[in-house]
Design a protein that fits this description.
mainly beta; four-stranded antiparallel sheet; 8 strands; globular
Length: about 60
């Protein structure tokens, strides 16, 4: 189960963001335009989710919030 902050509109997608050959789960959410990354560990398992960061800060996607 993936939980997002209220209001819980989420937009999940698969991508290999760390180029290790394993698909990672990215879950964008409406609140503040943040993206949580669950790195793929293989065998259908994932690491705990972490916010996507840029320059050491939580990254956000500009929008209408």
């Amino acid at each position: 189960m993936v939980r997002v902050e209220s209001p819980g509109y989420a937009a999940p997608c698969w991508a290999d963001i760390d180029a290790d050959g394993k698909k990672d789960l990215l879950v964008g959410q409406f609140k503040e335009g943040k993206i949580r990354v669950f790195k793929g560990l293989g065998d259908g398992k994932f690491a705990a989710g972490e916010w996507l960061k840029a320059d050491g800060k939580v990254a956000t996607v500009p929008g209408v919030w």
